[in-house]
DNA sequence: TTGCTAAACAAACGACTGTTTACATCTGCG
DNA sequence: CGCAGATGTAAACAGTCGTTTGTTTAGCAA
C-alpha cells in the first residue's frame, strides 16, 4: 500500500498530502466554533492527529493557516456567484432582481450543505469573520469577495435604474447583514420561536429571504 | 483628603469605587475590539490601571466580567425599547410599522453615540456576541433581550395581521441581521463604496434601514 | 482601642500560547 | 547506490493565560 504516490511538482508543497487537508478541515471547524483566538494550535494538531510543528511547516503561521483556508474555500463561492450571475444575463437581457439576489446568496448559503464546497463549518467561519474588526479578517474577506460584491452592486443598480447608487449600496449592506446572520446560525431566532424558524434550513431561508430583500430593494428611495 | 466616604450598605461591594467602572469601561472596549478570547485580563488591568487580582475580586471571573458588563449596559436598551413601544401605542391604537421598527432599532444603534448609555463600544460588542456560537454568549444575550424581542414580534404581527406568524418571525430574523451588521460596523461597505456608505452614521443608517425593512415586512408572504 | 471587613496589592500557580530548533525519516532522481 | 529535498517529529523556547494565594491597607462599629 504505497499511498505516497503523489507530488509530481517538486517545487513546493504541491503534494496531495492528507495532512494538509486534515489540518484545514479541523481548523475550519474549530475556528468557526470558537473564533481565531479561541483555538490553540495544539487543539487543531491534536484533533487532526498531526504533529504540532506540521502546521507551521505547511502554513507558516496561524494567520497563514486562516489565509490558506480562505484561499481554498472562498474562491469557489465567488466563482459560483459570478457564474450564476452570468447565467442570469444569458437567460434575459434584463434579469429579474430576484434572480440576481439568488445568484448572490445561494452560493454563500448552500455550500454549508453541499460538501463538494468543503466542510459546512466554513459558512459559519465566514459569518464570524464578517463581524470582526481585526485587520486580518477584513483583509482576507476583502481579497476574497470584493470583486464579486462590486459586480453584484452594479447588477442590482442596473436592475433598479431609478434607485440612486447610494441607496443601492445601503441596501446591499443590509442584505449582507441578513445573509451573514443567517449564515452564523446563532440560535437566537430558534430560541425566540421555539425552533419554528431555523436558519440552518438554507432552502427555506432563501425562499423567505429573497422576496423580503427584493421588496426592500424595490421600495422608494429615501428623500 | 478622606475620599473614601462611601459604602453605606455594609453588605457587599456597594461602594462607588471607581475601580469597578474603570474595569468595565476598558473591558467593554477591548472585548469589542478583539473578542472575549482575544483579550487577556492583564491587558484590561493594565489599561485600567488596576491590579490584576481586582478583576477576580469584583467580578469573580472573566466570564463574570462579561456578565456584569451586560447586566449594566443591556438593561437600559431593553427598557428604552419597551418605553418607545409603549409610546407608539399611546399615540395610535394601531401604530405604524415604521414606528415599531424605529422603537426597536433606535435604542440599539444610538447608544453608540449617546454616552449616557455607556461607552460606544458596547454596540460593537453586542454585535460580535450575536454571531458567536459560544454557550455563554447565547445565554447572556437571551437573558438580556428575549423579553423585548418577543414583545416586538407580537407588535409587528399585530401591525401586519395578514402575515403568517412564521413569516413575521423569519423577517424579524433578517432584521436582526441587518441591525447587527450595522452595529458591527465591519468596514466592509465603506471599502466597497469608498466610504460613501458609513454604518457608523447611525442617524442616516436608521433613515435608510427602516423603509427598507418596512417594505420587506409588508411584501406578500411566500406561498 | 480592638475587632471586623471590604479593598487593593505583589507574587506565584500550573497550564497553555505560537513559534523555532535540531534531528529523524522517507521519497524520487541522477 | 547516494544524495538532495520534502516531510514528519519531539522537545524546548519565551511568553501569556485565568486564577489563587497570602498579606497589607483603610474605614467603620463596638
Helix content of chain A: 55-70%
Strand content of chain A: under 5%
Rg of chain A (C-alpha, Å): 20 Å
The most extensive contact between chains is: A-B, 65 and 65 residues
Pairing-aware structural class of the strands and helices of chain A?
Answer: mainly alpha
Q: What would you say about this model in short?
A:
The structure is a homodimer of 223-residue chains. Chain A is mainly alpha-helical. Chain A is built from 10 helices and no strands.
Written overview of the protein:
The structure is a homodimer of 223-residue chains. The first copy, chain A, is mainly alpha-helical. Helices cover 69% and strands 0% of the residues of chain A. Chain A has 10 helices and no strands. Chain A has helices at residues 18-34, 41-47, 52-59, 62-91, 97-110, 121-130, 135-159, 165-184, 188-192, 202-218. In chain A, α4 (62-91) packs antiparallel against α5 and α4 runs parallel beside α7 (135-159). The longest helix of chain A has 30 residues, at 62-91. The first copy, chain A, is globular. Chain A starts with 17 loop residues before the first helix and ends in a 5-residue tail after the last helix. Chains A and B meet through α1, α6, α7, α8 and α9 of A and α1, α6, α7, α8 and α9 of B. Chain B binds a DNA duplex (30 and 30 nucleotides) through α3.
Amino acid at each position: 500500500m504505497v499511498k505516497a504516490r503523489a507530488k509530481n511538482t517538486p517545487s513546493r508543497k504541491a503534494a496531495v498530502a492528507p495532512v494538509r487537508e486534515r489540518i484545514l478541515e479541523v481548523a475550519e471547524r474549530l475556528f468557526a466554533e470558537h473564533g481565531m483566538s479561541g483555538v490553540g494550535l495544539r487543539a487543531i494538531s491534536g484533533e487532526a492527529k498531526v504533529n504540532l510543528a506540521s502546521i507551521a511547516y505547511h502554513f507558516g503561521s496561524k494567520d497563514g493557516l486562516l489565509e490558506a483556508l480562505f484561499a481554498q474555500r472562498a474562491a469557489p463561492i465567488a466563482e459560483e456567484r459570478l457564474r450564476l450571475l452570468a447565467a442570469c444575463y444569458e437567460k434575459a437581457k434584463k434579469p429579474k432582481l430576484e434572480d440576481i439576489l439568488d445568484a448572490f446568496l445561494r452560493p454563500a448559503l448552500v455550500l454549508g450543505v453541499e460538501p463538494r464546497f468543503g466542510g459546512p463549518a466554513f459558512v459559519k467561519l465566514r459569518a464570524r469573520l464578517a463581524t470582526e474588526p481585526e485587520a486580518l479578517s477584513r483583509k482576507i474577506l476583502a481579497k476574497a469577495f470584493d470583486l464579486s460584491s462590486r459586480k453584484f452592486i452594479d447588477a442590482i443598480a442596473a436592475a433598479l435604474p431609478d434607485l440612486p447608487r447610494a441607496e443601492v449600496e445601503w441596501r446591499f449592506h443590509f442584505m449582507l447583514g441578513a445573509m451573514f446572520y443567517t449564515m452564523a446560525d446563532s440560535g437566537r431566532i430558534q430560541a425566540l420561536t421555539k425552533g419554528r424558524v431555523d436558519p440552518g434550513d438554507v432552502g427555506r431561508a432563501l425562499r423567505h429571504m429573497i422576496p423580503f430583500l427584493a421588496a426592500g430593494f424595490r421600495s422608494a428611495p429615501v428623500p
